[in-house]
What we know:
The complex is a heterodimer of chains A (673) and B (321).
Chain A: H1 9-27, H2 32-36, H3 38-59, E1 63-67, E2 76-80, H4 82-103, H5 118-131, H6 135-153, H7 160-188, H8 196-201, H9 206-224, H10 233-239, H11 242-267, H12 273-295, H13 300-327, H14 331-366, H15 377-380, H16 382-395, H17 402-415, H18 423-454, H19 462-465, H20 472-490, H21 492-498, H22 500-507, H23 534-556, E3 560-563, H24 581-596, E4 600-604, E5 615-619, H25 623-643, H26 651-672
Helix pairs in contact in A: 1-3, 1-5, 3-4, 4-5, 4-11, 4-14, 4-20, 5-6, 5-11, 6-7, 7-9, 7-10, 9-11, 10-11, 10-13, 11-13, 11-14, 12-13, 12-18, 13-14, 13-17, 13-18, 14-16, 14-17, 14-20, 14-22, 16-18, 16-20, 17-20, 20-21
Chain B: H1 2-36, H2 46-56, E1 59-62, H3 67-85, E2 91-92, H4 102-122, H5 126-157, H6 162-171, H7 174-179, H8 181-194, H9 213-216, H10 222-247, E3 253-254, H11 259-285, H12 295-320
Parallel strand pairs in B: 2-3
Helix pairs in contact in B: 1-3, 1-10, 1-11, 2-10, 3-4, 3-10, 4-5, 5-6, 5-8, 5-12, 6-10, 8-10, 8-12, 10-11
Amino acid sequence: MTGVDFSAAPQLAAILLYAAAAGFAAVFHRHRVALAAVYPVCIAAAAVASFADLAALIADTNAGFRLPLGLPSIGLHVKLDALSAFFGLIVNIGVLTSAIYGMGLDRDRDLSARIEPFFPAFAAAMNLVLLAGDAFGFLFSWELMSLTSWVLVVSRHWDADSRHAGHVYLVMAAIGTVSLLFAFGGLAGATGNYAFDAIRATPPGPLVSGLVLAGAIVGAGSKAGIVPLHAWLPLAHPAAPSHVSALMSGVMTKVAIYGLVRIVFDLLGEPALWWSMIVLVLGGASALLGVLYALMQHDLKRLLAFHTVENIGIIFIGLGLALAFQTNHMEPFAALALTAALFHVFNHSLFKSLLFLGAGAVLHATGQRDMEEMGGLIHRMPMTALAFLIGCVAISALPPLNGFVSEWLTFQAILHSPDLPQLGLKFLIPSVGAVLALSAALAAACFVKAYGVSFLGRPRSEAVRHAHEVNRFALTSMFVLAGLCVFAGLFPGVVIDLLAPVNLALLGDRMPVQTSMPWLSVVPTVEGRSSYNSLLLFLFIVVSASLSGFAIHRSVSRALRRAPAWDCGFPDPSPETQYTASSFAQPIRRVYGTIAFGASEDVDMPAPGDQRPARLTVSLHDYAWEMLYAAPARAVLSLSERLNVLQFLTIRRYLMLMFSALIVLLLIAAVWF
Amino acid sequence: MGETLTLLFGQTVQMFLVLLVAPAITGITRRTKACFMRRQGAPVIQPYRDLIKLVRKEAIVAESASWLFRVAPYLIFALAWVAAALVPTFATGLLFSWTGDVIVIIALLGSARFMLALAGMDIGTSFGGIGSSREMMIATLAEPAMLLVVLTMALAAGTTQLPGVADFLIAAPFTVHVSLALALVALVMVALAENARIPIDNPATHLELTMVHEAMVLEYSGRHLAMIEAASQLKLVLYVSLIASLFLPFGIVRVEAGPVAWLGGGAIYLGKIAGAAILLGIWEVSIAKMRVFRVSEFLGGAFVFAFLAILLTFVTREVLK
Lengths: 673, 321
């Protein structure tokens, strides 16, 4: 292991390049030209790293060596295996597209010393997490990732909301890192060897593994945004500049998933039965609550951020299924579930980045994040609208795009759950499946709302009426991601086969080879049980749609007249009469919100003759925030206020206190020993 | 080679069969309703005439409409058509039946609904918005129940490919059908909701505030409306064929049996869907439409039935072992 191994050299070179860009921008932060140079360097580094990761994934590299950096006598273990390479590919595709978007930023308006030096540093930190081969390197780079992203979140520090977001993020990141610290402490055990290879060789006992799992779920889960640890995420992700939001929501949450997969599937050894149940329940809760929260939003970026919580829930459901099958030594199904989860990781990184970049484009063009002020952008920004539509269809898990493939694979894994011997799992998994179906349907509703209110209809404000298409860098970045969404949707077998080495390493089994299937169908387990061929379906749909359109236009009628909208005979020219984001969500709020958020509507109707307008007030409760965050914060505050009395005592009383404390301690010592 | 040609021919027959049969179901249902209301009613072929009339007419498009509004009808039609062509009607083992299982078919209809809801939002009128928003709400209630029905089927038959399920059920013991009875109830309830039938929605309504599906397509006219109408009719055929192939699978032939056997299968299939259309008509005259917020109770009921179906299937599996 200590021998010289060059297989991780391109990744390390890319990290050095990122670091150089960060350092360069920090030194020359007064020069806008220097700041603008950050993004091309990042593109180069990300391209090198993505190709290297792809190559490592295909070649199933397993390299490890030690750099003489970091702690004395331990050094820094660097490790590159299929899992790291797969997540590295995701991270660097995200960085690549965000950096392309960044190249189009306005040099005089958008570039600042608060963002450009930290962007490559953030990218480098995420890459470092994936390459870390020991707990010290992992935690160090994890913390570096948290801090650099925190700086980016508070880059608009004059805004009180940004400061609040930064504060909550910092607290949650600290809690997460402490939990991970405990998890790794438990993993290292009495020997105290923090290298992953040593940890893997000596798995801890059942009690300690349970504690390690809890620490990993709190630590990595809070970074990924699992309910109820998600509260920071919808505050922090939208507060950053949009291309950084794309990185945080699309990519950093995936690094957190990497941490969880690394600990649970790789380092912890044999899973216990209840692990899968916890992960499944957390996943189901996140999937459902995440999308319900998202539906209640009318700020486009916050909606997207909440929606990340839903997708992390879907990934957790896949991981939980994999654990359940692994516990029962049903490796082919475990491989199916893990592939589904990792495929969704890949998909979500693509379409969430795409949607955040699209939201950034809209923000750039109109200055608006509030959907209630948008409308009709499809006429003013046709290319952005097209890319955003592809993202919306993909994230709503609709065929033939990529989001559907991973959810379909998850459903296929769920359909195998009746073969499990445990009665608890037999009943839990169909319920989780129903929750997954519900959240998929709600996601479709959510993105009809997001797209319909912001891009369709008529403009609701002056700025939106005069919006302009964004520059070609932003469009390139969005279309690269949209193209990848389409590719992964039409050729899912390629992605599934790329995931085979990861599955083999973690579970010892893999899904059947997909690229050799007839017509490139996806076959989850055995032929004849279930299969899906998105390429053929896509061709059928395109051919029948265009043939029917062509036939009708050619042989029957092509006459078209533009006229005012019909609207049942009473069209109102005011755009105010359109359905808004809140009115779109109203039926869903009535049906689900009364339970999930204690939603209530209060109508204030003036008496006849009274001239004041009637008012409808909607109140929602965020129970997770109220119970898990606000209540402890209040308790700490009131306790500290009481203890504040101690700060203003006379010297006699201080002496008294110290004396009595001494006596109490001595008494304890006398009784104890 | 001859084998493949037969298969390809069978698939083509299926595609055009569902397309041709689709308006007839609507016609029979309307005719049945008229009979029960002691009206004369339009002839069964009226929906065909309506479609032809609409296709010939000039399309009037609102000034604020985008390209999405004009593309959506063809896409929705294509999605519904492809989905309907994957459901077994007169024969199983069609050439392309493996391109998607039942989840894919449901999801294709989901894509069609997504496009339709977006088209409803495109003009920027409140009717379009109200229709889209309620349609998506109803879909969120229907999909979990539908998934549990699928799970019950997969549990019984060991596959989610519809031809496989149908083949299994033709040969299955009677007890399996009994435990699937609850799933049938749930599936019928979901089908009523998905096809915007009474009591969820009224396809013949003229009262704006009660419309769901009709409100979404309010701005459509001419050939665009014809496409959307055809897509809804195809969707109805799809659900009727789905229920028929799962719960009344008798008479479905294997496609390899050749065109002569297909004729028998086709005749039985036509009988089944005509029966279903008459039943739908009787159902619609004997029940009133619900308030929109009662829909959650109706589809919640479907969910409970589907869940009970799973439990019952677990029990039957244990007993049959």
